[in-house]
Fold this protein.
Amino acid sequence: AQSVTQPDIHITVSEGASLELRCNYSYGATPYLFWYVQSPGQGLQLLLKYFSGDTLVQGIKGFEAEFKRSQSSFNLRKPSVHWSDAAEYFCAVATGGGNKLTFGTGTQLKVEL
Amino acid sequence: EPEVTQTPSHQVTQMGQEVILRCVPISNHLYFYWYRQILGQKVEFLVSFYNNEISEKSEIFDDQFSVERPDGSNFTLKIRSTKLEDSAMYFCASTEGPNTEAFFGQGTRLTVV
């Protein structure tokens, strides 16, 4: 069965510092990968997605992610974090023809001013 | 920008009561989903719906749960006899097709007392 692992439950970074959130997946076929962000009390907003092609994908709010098949990873990065980026970040993999999403446990990002 | 709309945003119900959570997916989308997030836990898939029938459901989605698309715009989740452990945030999502990005609603926070 497919699974997604986000090894970091909490991460704290200073505003302006770079950020990398880790995501590893387990899935037999070619995965469709996503990063979503959830602000407190809010829904899930799509940051970026990987379906095929270029393994470095750009998303909204200055985020990017790199798909590495050999490492089964899809890490999220941002060169310079803003205080408004504080939120919970979920990595997800789509499986099955109907696009069911399997989510990781999430990484809570705190930004220090 | 089109969006998925969920009502109500918050519902409190007594244990054993029936609740109906409502969603209006994006109008040209064909696949519909319900997910839930128990406080502090990850987002879990409940059910997917396509062509007026359930296409996949999780172990969580037992006989107490049902989904319906009563008209051309609404998509509902019914819980027949709520239990304390049904307390969670319930998210509706829709996709245009298989393996396309999912758009999520803002969620309905269900509290069972």
